[in-house]
Amino acid sequence: MATMRRRRVGTAGRGAGVAAGARSGLWMLARVVSLITAIVVGIIVIAIVLVLLKANPSNQIVSFFHDTAKTLVGPFKDVFSAKGRKGIVLNWGLAAIVYAIVGSFIARLLRR
Question: From 1, 29, 43, 87, which residue has the greatest number of CB atoms within 10 Å?
């Protein structure tokens, strides 16, 4: 009787296991998307703060964040025509918001 019970559970468990495995894989992918989104938005926000605080651009750390953020916000270059720090805050801030919204939307879709 124990053998029959195992077979039934094993047979039923296989289909459920595949669905659970796929669901688990999508949840993991959603977590990766969320992590990448957080890193991208974090880099942009740190770069904005460094620009606002007039951090030394020749410093390697400041340069790293500025150069990386500049690459990430490329598609948002000159959305607003403001120049200087105000332009950076507006354009880069918009990029951070868009990345956050799109990343969370993709992660939410993967979790469903």
Answer: 43
